[in-house]
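Why does residue order matter? Because the sequence determines the fold. Keep that principle in mind as you read this record.
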Amino acid sequence: MSYPRELYHADQGEVSGTLWKGDTAPDLVIGGRTNVHYLATGRSTDGQYGLYRWDMGEKPGGPGAHFHKTMSEAFFVLSGVVGLYDGDAWVNASPGDFLFVPPGGIHAFRNPEGPASMLILFAPGAPREGYFEELAEVAASGRALTEEEWTDIYLRHDQYMV
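Structure:
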């Protein structure tokens, strides 16, 4: 394997980093129980990747088994216990545990034992914020979507439920 194509062409480096402080308020709250921090979006990384901190509350929750056709997804547990599904079995993952799922790989996650936090990485960087924000809007509205409405949301956001 070789290095990817050059993305920066100048002979001198530049000051261009962005610092995110750990005590920054979440960018989005889903259902009053999940805080989402947009650490690096596909837009801010020019499509290279998207990185999100996902802080789950006391009440267990998480998506059902699904896969993506356009991106890989990876999970790194920061705190608590995160149930990670690799398409074959559920594992209760602890801080420091990591799961990589290539495009097409079936996966899911949940917080089975209360509060937990993890990093979620999508590569390349897709506009996942739109999906997260739709989920938050549905949760905030309290309305129950039809199967057709869920299918529409999933298809627009490269989310194929199993």
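The mean pLDDT is 96.
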